Structure prediction request, 619 residues.
Amino acid sequence: MRRLPILVLLMVLVLPALGLAQNSHQSLFLPNSDSLQINNTTMGGQGQDDEQGENGDNVEYPEYTPPKPFSGVETKTTQGGIEAEKSHRTLHQRFNVMMPTGQDPASVGSELRHPFETVPFPELPVYGQSLFAGHFSSTYYDERNPSYLIRYGDRIGVRIWGAFNFEQELTVDLLGNIFIPTVGPVKVMGVPNGSLSKVVMKAVENVYQKEYIKSYIDLLTPNPLSVFVSGQVTRPGRYAGGSTDSILYFLDLAGGIDPFRGSYRDIAIMRKGKEVANIDLYDFIRHGKLSPVKLEEGDVIVVKERGIKVGVNGQVRFQAWFEFNDSYAMGSDIMDCSLPMAGVTHVSLQGYRNREPFKKYLTLDEFKYSKVMDEDTVEFLSDSPAEMIVVYVEGAIAGRSQFFVKRGTRLHALLNYIAVDKTYAKLDSIYLKRISVAEQQAAALSDSLFRLQQNSLIANSQTAGEAEIRIKEAGLIDEFIKRAANAEQKGVVAIANKGKVEDVFLQDGDIVVVPRVTDVVLITGQVLAPNTVVYNKDYQLEDYLKLAGGLELSSDENHILIFKSNGFVEQVADASIEPGDTIMALPVYRSKNLEFAKALTQIFYQIAVGTRAILQTAF
Prediction:
């Protein structure tokens, strides 16, 4: 009798919030779950923001805003006007949806990583290292443009006809002149290429009348510029280029800046023993600013030794080793260079102080005003648990497939908000798919695969023929291990037992699966003809196996599993076959090495339970 007041109170609180006053809005009750109900229609909106949970805690459901559908995903508008995603993503694909996308331009390396995967400090690139990948030195810049200034050594083609005929390639001499017979020396050094023809013709017209003379003047080949590159570069030396080529061109020819010793922020241009410019490449990388100084013959580009360097990884847009000119850097300087993500709350700072290991864990605000020294490493972390978690719903549903709930919410509180298809929903068989369980299954499988590989490599052979067989067998096992390691675990958590759905705590990324009512039984695995047949209450296991052609030689009746629609897995001896079940015949490996056969049988079982599938072998 105590349940009656509680039931009345729950109905008073829940029914108005779900808008179930109308006759068309009916409730479906889970068997043996007290007053727990699942709606068979979609809510257009909740009448209340808060609901009292079983323990009196407030369970908050913010107003639902449907996400923009992914390309290629079919959507439908439900009765409440909510556009819900009809998703068939796997557990891991759903989890990855919550990860940011994009690519970190500071990351340099041959391996492809997730854009925001934390890179270990030994593998971090030097910030700016990607500048010197050959893109500057491989470009050709034609200096025969109108603004190019004629220099010593340039070759000029001169053709004159009419009252005076002359055709020859002339070289600009040390005085900056070219010599034309009967005309004399013509000053061309420093003349823009666009004005070269006018300057030469003006000198010719001083001797011959304009109407009796024609000419064609052309800059053939500019004289190359020789520049020395020294200091902390990969290949110091003397390199040829043009006067309009930038410092990046010559540094690229020299193999780039030494990433361990060279400075990207202290590069000097020396001219006749004096420094005429100092260049900080961070200004170019971050702001597109580069010194306008033009290189001249004999200039020396000196890359000086680097300043302090700080390694940064974690939740930042740029994971790299950064350089700073002073004896230390402030935390705010590190943040300006690395650009932390919006969710960062804490920083792990490690290094050495007075030759002793130094470690400190700081909030983001504390880190801004902290000194960071040479060779320190900084990891940006999001270390505050989110108040809300996301839970997905799949199966026989008729409404929303995604819910944002408070951390600590239990399953029953969420089920009151799930609209289901009452005709096809199997409400006594609800189960979960959970990321943490899938990770544990993958770790257990990985350990078993390691032991299997170890056993295959240390197996003894009595004869040379047996040794050859063992070698071939080890190769086949190695291929099997590679395939098995990539098997995607489902992370199934069975929560419905004898019709009662347990009220478990929900975790971020959980998938609540509402199975569909079905009248078929699937027979798969090591059978001759995998098949799906209609359930017959009079059929036994042998009858279903016969409909699939019977067992293969690589299986037997002691290695058959029954996967129930509620997520449970049962052995044949204990199971009664029901509609919606899957009969899976596991492979059996027969070998003289009993330990090896036992390990392989265990792996077959782990793969079947974790992935709900059979991984075929070649041995």
In short: The first strand starts at residue 27 and ends at 29. Residues 1-112 have pLDDT under 50 and may be disordered. Residues 259 and 295 are 24 Å apart (CA to CA). Residues 435-458 form the longest helix (24 residues).
